[in-house]
């Protein structure tokens, strides 16, 4: 092979260098390369090879030091260039030339690519890349696909999600080891290796020669640049400097890998060829520089072994001698309990290490291993050394990518994996020292996940390289560096060591990559089996696990509150879950069948040995140390989970894997301690330990941890309980929970270990624990599907849940390969079986709901399981929430009206192996406890709650359900009173014990107890309640009944049992029980004076239950055995009426079950019922009963009264809310006084919401409306086409704003300003389409002086957020609606009084004159009153609301015309917006929603007051041009010097209307208003005719001209549109307006033939917008209601409403718009005058003249952009799109939903004058309001002025949920309703009111 020859040439003596052309010109390079290639192609290529080597030697000389620039000669020799950079580039150029062999490098690349057998994708990506994972197609859970492969494959209907890569990854498309072939994309489906031609030999020949030298050169650089750090800290700066210099070289290699398979295989040869490496690295010759770098390499290698000197002290002597291959690993002794002592004496002095020194070493399985894991590394190939440097330099991204890019080459993959394993220990060592451990962890996993996910590869490496041994050892070593002595149990003498959770290693999760790899390889069956078969490995692993056993010990603080709350518990829980539990689940997933029994036996065996060692190490005998708890018992949990698996899946006999009784007793202690501690923590007994202890208790039961923590613990306790003596177990429980002293018949007692306030909750805790222990079947016989169902029901009962939170809350098997995948078939099917889906809805407040799942009715009815709920609640309030929901369900379905108790639920049958568990229910100890508690509850002793009773009854019921075989009544009757001398109850069966009467009980009570009274009480009837406690003199009783009094001490019983067992176990016969140090449970003598009393009880459990029934129901003899009436009950016991109910129902259910179980019980119940209450003669009510009945009635009445009051209060509150706070839904709302419709003469009265006084608004003390002023560009977004624009999702689709309303108006104004006089132009149009000021109010009023003091108080108030007081912002004091100004109310009547409204009979001519006069009067400048000041200040506010560019359109800045234009445009903006809010027309009529809260009346006053300050010169007043014929004097003169005025036909009529009205003195008279409207309508109609004439073609025009001319002399010619039209045409024909029609114009003309109907429709449509605005104005000024009508009659209705239609107009004819005309002067004269102006303009500018005539009047309503159905289409296009400003891909891309502009959120690149791009865009596009969709988060963000808020998402997944930040990555679909709501809020300007969470953005978005 050529490469070998080249290598040989290096080693040999160097021949004299041949003459080469001077390097420099690329032409020469190419020639040289071609020459060399030819030389090498000859059969005898030795000379060529030598020549090439010499050249490379010179070009790639590594003698140039990296950092400093070399001196001149060397640089010249290396190919010119000054510094190293230039030389490096030169070298790269040479390499490229040589590889290409003289040709062009690009052509060479293309040629190599042609030979790529692209079977695998293998695209490598780094962190934050968007990739996909399809669980349907994946074989390995780590499978991932790049977006391209994903979209080209077919994954419809699959369970996939999109995710952002955390650590980086690679695309698995085409790799059938990791994913199913059906999921491959189109490119990688074809196994194309067969049809790729063979690579020609000469193509890659040069590469084989050049690359070894190149890679060696790179390695030289890496050696050169590395300096062994002085103080163990590699200075990152130096490393990064080296890496930066090498960037081009590594990139070059990376590019080579991308050339495809052919080049990769050459690289693989180069990297793995050991000969090459040996020759190049050893043939250093005399080269000083190379020698130096080699020395550096050797130094770096030295520290690569695991046994580094600094650890010798701690680990004892651990240098493996050269010959040994066994591993010395620290750990427990195998089986024996004694400890090996080390000889090294110096160790004893090291404080802290002595505990470690005393440990015995264990040998790992001694199979002959090639190398010890701890030896120094030796490298044999380039690949090995490259990886070594990659690790040393802490995994630079470029190197990692290069190494991963090579993976598609199979041969390389194997070699690399072996190399990686060989360096594994070294990686761990570097990782531990690294400062950037996070980044490094990610890079390590980026590599390892690619290697270890492949089962075949993992198996190969396990067999050939001892992968498992290496991993376990490395983990062990890693943890050994942070061990401390355990303080559990016996602080002084403990020999146990645990990890220290405060160490960085645990706190920062540094161990994560190693554990993650370990879990990954254990998921492969073949690897896991090896692990489970290897005893040595299991022993080591149990050692490792034992380091976590008992970590993070909590000691209860009894005096002071702890000063510093440590947060180490996070680290502890994470460590147990990741390092212990997840590998455990991995192993368990391979123990599913009978054949794997052996593995379980192995694990259980070594687990028990480790536990035994642990008990010995902590010196444990039988009592746990008080006030200590650790939540971490991984050994217990391993043992429990493998036991469970053995019974459930492997059919192992449980007893064969259980230890002896004594070990079981020890095993149960610590898990039980945890359960008791949970109760203590919830009882606030650990409150001095701070919040973190609560955090631990919550984490322990939290969904991600519970099945690795609390579930195994409870299961282990269940196993112990089923095998231990039940009395012993029960008494242990009550002792652990510290409530033994409470369990006494006496009414008073002393508890030596518990404060009184904690007793109740601890007793509840103990009983709840027993109920859970006895009811839970998670590991005792439930199938996986049943478990899933139970978990789901429990979660849904607590609260309705979203799909994703359910997935999160249901504990799944933490190991991803275990098979129960969330979202798998079973999850969905169970979910649909138990829950109903509630689709996402809206509440009027705008708060958006997600799609929720809620339990079905039958689930509440039959499956609600309080026990499961209690087990799974993290917060106690969730239990209450579940009960509340259950209660609500029962009320709603009519099953039970009152407050129900938790229902009793039937359990799944127990697995036979655990039958022993039920003995707990049938043991005397439990019966005594139950009896005592029932008695205490009945007697109302303190500290007992309903919860206690509930649990007691639950336990009794459990006992009845699980009683042994039916007891024979005969046998029972025999054992009479004789047998019960020794103890309370005769037997252990609950059924028979229930009826056993207990007569006397001896109790120990404090001296002060009532039982100890010396005088005897007169006792009445023996069964009255009072005398039950009758205490005759104790002495007498003792004498009489010395045999029957019983004393029972739980503790003594338990001690006795334990003693027996200890003595029984022969192996431990010599062990003495340690004397107790604490006198806690010693003889009661130590407690304060206790004395013995004897109580007469005479009750049985049955009688207590019946009396409880009376007590609960509050009636005497309330219980009547149901079977006496209905014998059927005994035959079919399942009676639905007992399923739900309260305590009474529970007692009845239990008594019925007791009667069913035995005839004796049935009889005794009947007897008791007869005895308790002798039959009462009917109809007589005793006084006492009457009293109670009266009481009941009175209570009932009181309750009813209360209900009534509450209802009344609620309705009052509601009506208040509606009037005051109805911000959110403007629909159902009550009109405020401001605009009431009745015309009243009285002055308007306003209420001030601050001082509460009402009165009129006056000049001195004006009242104002609370208003919000905001700039708005909504109007400008109207377009003239119906089809809403779509959001662009390809490069071709773009949105141009030229067809928006704002753009059209802009063009018109600038056109006018080009040809006409500026001041006249500014009167001819309106502005405010963009940046217009919109004024809205909540309708509340306040005195302006009150408002000022209110603002002052806000200013001093520090806690305000959300708005800025300095900008005048505040919230309405009453309804809290956002506002920023106050609009003064004009004194005077509410609505203009009748006086002004009376129609006068003046002729129109008179009115016209009056109007002219009134306008001519200059506005008197108002006197300096408070009112006028406020008017001025509010005007200032209005101006400042919008930006200057939206106010100034005049050519002369600051001209008064500008202000004038701005003011009447504000009125226009508000009218137009109201019209849009009403849906664009007035058909709905009425004082519709927008009208109620309108402040237009007040606004008009303010505007009019200011407009009257400017008077228009009378000759310029358009009113004259409209109403008078002007003699044509000097019309042509002077036009030359100055620009003409705007012709009246170019004026915007609506603007004229507002000008005319605002120029009049206020209040305005109705007939003047009508007059103005009539006059303007004539102009409007003429404009419509002119526009129509321009729109149609020449023939139509001449035809109309004729037909109209004929009718000209008829009587109402002025009211006929035909006549008028023909006149307009003939007038305009005089000018050049029509002449310009060239051919191009014809295209514009509409092709439709004009019929009279279509012309009428055109004219009406042209006039309608004006009529609508005018009607609205009339409605606001004069308070007249708007009539409602059909759309087609809108024109006629509005015109008659405005008084345009003559009253005598008949309705029979089809309606003609022209009939509304009322010409003030002869029509034809005035029209010809108007047309003359047009003609004189079109003389010069015909084109523009025509454009100005055609106005688009029919704007459609504004809409946001239409969004695509599927979010992915938006995401794929925009998330990679580059920003147009900075051409980078933004970190947070966003897109504007109003105009589709793409912007960078928070992008500093696009910042302009401290404004970020989104804020800037919101000002330009929406005048301060921006609506942006954040591409990477799917969320919409609203910017309003200086504030912003997150609005929510309009894209939801299939389950109706948002996916903020795309965390779940499920497909999202548009939610049309939400988008509508968003659009509605935008159009109605209610963002500020509806969204509550606003914050300042400081221009940074």
Q: Which segments are poorly predicted (pLDDT under 50) over 5 or more consecutive residues?
A: 1-26, 62-84, 307-371, 816-823, 966-982, 1013-1045, 1065-1088, 1174-1182, 1220-1241, 1390-1396, 1487-1491, 1529-1536, ...
Shape: flat
Structural class: alpha+beta
Question: In angstroms, what separates the terminal alpha carbons?
Answer: 62 Å
Instruction: Please give the number of β-strands.
Output: 30
Average pLDDT confidence is: 78
Outline the biggest β-sheet: 6 strands, antiparallel
- Beta-strand share of residues: 5-15%
Architecture overview:
The protein has 1901 residues and is of the alpha+beta class. The protein is 48% helix and 7% strand. The protein has 73 helices and 30 strands. Strands 24-23-25-26-27-30 form a six-stranded antiparallel sheet. Strand 26 and strand 27 form a beta hairpin. Helix 8 runs parallel beside helix 15, helix 28 crosses helix 31 and helix 32 (726-736) packs across helix 45 (1050-1064). The longest helix is centred in the middle third of the chain and has 39 residues, at 1183-1221. It is flat and about 130 Å long. The two termini are 62 Å apart. The N terminus is likely disordered.
